[in-house]
Write a structure and sequence with these properties.
2 domains, 1 helix, 6% helix
Length: 289
């Protein structure tokens, strides 16, 4: 009888300290809901996304000393102390649009005619499937070997089926300028959310980006792909499909990973002693004659 009474007390205690907040991520001007917003707890290094309708749900039990980072392409990043949510269950979060100076973005000249179609970054030695993780972005540098500007036509992503996956991810495409000094991606050049529902099978996903008129500069570009699963309560190492295919490389090609927009880390994978591998993220470009 005492054991039963003790268990009841534990259940009452746990329910009294548990707290889940939910609500919508909203554009502060248009009042429209923002889909697939990145949300991460900075101290606990866990997070998730709002769903395709901008709705989110977050367990903050025993985490009120943490800070919530809320970020989305085209909006100013917001940092919110979770102590603000004490005794609250429904919280709408408003984001302010980030007014980017378009002169800083690499936009191709419409006067130049581009007709030569070229694929880059798709060299493949070996067929390695890397288990992709929700909330991770995988990025690699694609060099321009022609020493003249081109126009980005499409991004090509090599994917592989992941067996026994619990969820199939959506993929968000990123295009960055390459910072030669810091040796990492710099400014985001694709200023709209381009999110594709992936298939959990082996195939090449081709994403047409011609309408964005993005320059393929002489120094090259960085191509990034972010794995998005908006399922609430998702654990970090839950099996997500599809996998990203990697290839062995003979020389070091800069590649990175970025978990929940927390910063770039070296993304090269080491295999079989001294062999390195990078993600197969390629592009199709149009070059002038």
């Amino acid at each position: 009888m005492k054991k039963i009474f003790f268990l009841v007390l534990i259940l009452i205690y746990n329910s009294s300290i548990s707290q889940t907040i939910s609500g919508n991520i909203i554009d502060s001007v248009s009042k429209s809901q923002i889909p697939f917003v990145n949300m991460v707890l900075l101290k606990h290094n866990i997070g998730g996304y709002s769903n395709e309708k901008g709705y989110y749900q977050l367990d903050i039990q025993r985490k009120l000393n943490d800070t919530l980072k809320v970020s989305s392409l085209g909006y100013k990043t917001k940092f919110i102390p979770l102590s603000n949510f004490k005794d609250k269950n429904i919280v709408d979060i408003f984001l302010i649009e980030n007014n980017i100076n378009l002169e800083e973005v690499l936009i191709i000249s419409k006067k130049i005619k581009y007709s030569k179609n070229i694929k880059l970054g798709l060299e493949q030695k070996g067929n390695i499937g890397v288990s992709s993780l929700a909330g991770h972005q995988y990025c690699t540098f694609v060099k321009n070997p022609y020493r003249k500007n081109g126009k980005l036509k499409s991004v090509i992503i090599k994917l592989k089926k992941r067996k026994k996956s619990k969820y199939t991810a959506s993929l968000r495409i990123h295009i960055y300028e390459y910072d030669e000094k810091e040796k990492k991606p710099k400014n985001e050049l694709l200023l709209e959310n381009v999110i594709i529902k992936a298939k959990n099978k082996k195939y090449s996903l081709i994403v047409d980006l011609q309408k964005y008129n993005i320059l393929f500069p002489k120094k090259g570009l960085c191509i990034g792909v972010e794995w998005i699963v908006s399922k609430t309560g998702l654990k970090k190492f839950t099996k997500i499909g599809p996998m990203l295919r990697y290839t062995y490389i003979n020389k070091i090609i800069p590649s990175w990973t970025n978990y929940q927009n927390r910063g770039w880390k070296n993304g090269l994978m080491k295999y079989e002693g001294n062999k390195f591998a990078k993600p197969i993220l390629g592009i199709e470009v149009l070059m002038p004659k």
